[in-house]
Amino acid sequence: MSERTFLLAANWKMNPTPAAALVNAHGDQSKNPYHPHADIDVVVFPTFLDVQRCMDAGLIVGAQYGHPEVSGAHTGDVSMAMLKTIGCRYVLCGHSERRNDHKETDNDVAAQAIAALEQKIHPIICIGETLEEREKGHAEAVVKKQLKGLPLESDVTIAYEPVWAIGTGKTATPTQAQEMHAFIRSQLPKDRRDSTRILYGGSMKVENAEAMLKQPDIDGGLIGGASLKPEEFGKMIEIAEKMIIN
Ligand code: PGA
Q: Which residue is closest in CA terms to ligand 1's atom 2?
């Protein structure tokens, strides 16, 4: 088994924070599946509006986006520096929904990741191919291009999220995911290959979590839909924890 600690990240996107997350995790943690765990890393990604509330509840919190510039004329944006000030420890960079909705390019994503590192915020950098790209046999080339220019020599996390599996209920098979994760790992600088975590994202749920997490190059999940359901998210954490013990 790898020495990389599992990371389960709840990406709530533009959805209300699940009420269970706001049960104070400093007290009875059994009521809050999102609370920090000793043996695996659990991080939540609420909307900007709920970042503070989640931190007040004792959760480890990340932002879904951060602007690379420290401040300036960027209406509607929040900078990495501001995220740092408020206490965010993680940030998502280049989620496919942001690449699509906000036309973020690979260069933008690299700039975000570099700015996050400068602020000592841990970037989770999302990459992944569309269905069309996979069907044409271009999946590896697409991912390779997305990796280019990223600060991979630093302490970052990669999330492989095939676009066709996000929010669709379709999941890559564990074999497909493992193949791509192994390919991504082969692209990392040699001295970072063993230590960099690569998460799987795309309809990860209770039914497939164990099969995914069993794969040698899958180090956790970036979980959307299923993370909004506290019970389901809690079960996925249990699955990950059992796998560490066994
Ligand atoms: P999903 O989302 O689990 O709902 O597919 C994952 C993600 O987009 O991060």
A: 224
Total-model pTM: 0.96
Q: Rounded to an integer, what distance in angstroms lies between the CA atom of residue 193 and that of residue 69?
A: 29
CA angle, residues 93, 194, 188, in degrees to nearest 5: 50
Q: What digits encode the pLDDT tens for the residues 21-60? A: 998 766 666 778 999 998 999 999 999 999 999 999 999 9
Whether residue 76 is contained in a domain is answered as yes
CB contact set of 238 (below 8 Å; sequence gap of 6+): none
Residue 19 neighbours by CB under 8 Å, 6+ apart? none
Residue 221 belongs to a domain with what CATH number? 3.20.20.70
Distance separating the N- and C-terminal Cα atoms of the chain? 10
The 3-state DSSP class for residue 167 equals coil
Q: Which of 97, 104, 133, 161 is flagged as catalytic?
A: 161
Q: Which of 35, 95, 122, 181 is catalytic?
A: 95
Q: How many domains does the chain have?
A: 1
Domain contains 2: no
Domain-located, residue 64 = yes
Domain annotation covers residue 115: yes
- Determine the structural domain holding residue 238 and report its residue range: 7-245
The question of whether 161 is a catalytic residue gets the answer yes
